[in-house]
Design a protein that fits this description.
With about 130 residues, this protein is of the alpha+beta class. The chain is built from three helices and six strands. It has a six-stranded mixed β-sheet, covered by helices on one side. Helix 2 runs parallel beside helix 3.
Length: about 130
Amino acid sequence: MERTNYSSGAVWEDIVGYSRAVRMGNVIEVTGTVALDDNNNPVAPGNAYEQTRFIIAKIEKVLENAGATLKDVVRTRMFVTDISRWKEYGKAHGEFFSNIRPCTSMIEVKGLIAPEYLIEIEATAVIG
């Protein structure tokens, strides 16, 4: 099965040794994604809703590069630093996925790679 790695150019990819996404056959796994722009700057610090929207749009872009769309997403995993803000994360997630309805998890974690990030999202897509 052919493997294709997709990079976003994030500062951590070379240090840690990972790809933004990996496609094998009809499955695409998107790595944990934070609200980091193309210039390696945090987006919307302190704003859970906007960070979630930015991240899902970023995931959508890499899926499109890999030949998929958000409609192919079967699972998302949201790692959040403050679960009490679940409605903010959930509202943004729902704006993209309310008709697609993938399996999802929202898990509170102690922290992410930098304190500016309130949420990190992973996704799995299956092209059918």
